[in-house]
What does this fold into?
Amino acid sequence: MVKTFQLIALLIGFGASAQDSLDTVLSKFNDESIPYISAEELKMQQNNSDFLLMDTRERKEFEVSKIEGAVYIGYNQFSINQFVNFATDKTRPIVVYCSLGIRSEDIGEKLKKAGYTNVKNLYGGIFEWKNKGFPVVDSDGNKTEKVHAYSKQWGKWLLKGEKVF
It folds into this structure.
């Protein structure tokens, strides 16, 4: 509950100041209960079809762009019961991501509580992925520069690409 309140405060502009680093912001809202994977580590693993890449943003964000190979599971409408039916092997590696890595940690915690043993959270989310120069694709699978920035406050962390609100 406290984490949810902190996230809401950030989204409406009472959270991080412009001088805060990404490390500082993530340390304020995440407790690292789900270990991070860096954008570079994920990029190296992208050709490995053995892991699941799960996008925990909302549908409107996902429809603008995603990391290639990602499957939409959402945040507000996320259902652990549906996920368990989709991903039956609880030892299979899973990487969750959102815009920065805050919502995805929440979903990662739900997966961990449900017995999934190999869950990682993309550090900095799709924003950091794009900031590192890695490609995103649109809903048709075509490369795009567009990334849903969630809000103007949230979008300040997206430094590369075209912000969509």
Q: What stands out?
A: The CA atoms of residues 129 and 140 lie 19 Å apart. Strands lie at 36-37, 52-55, 71-72, 94-97, 119-122, 136-137, 143-144, 146-148, 162-164.
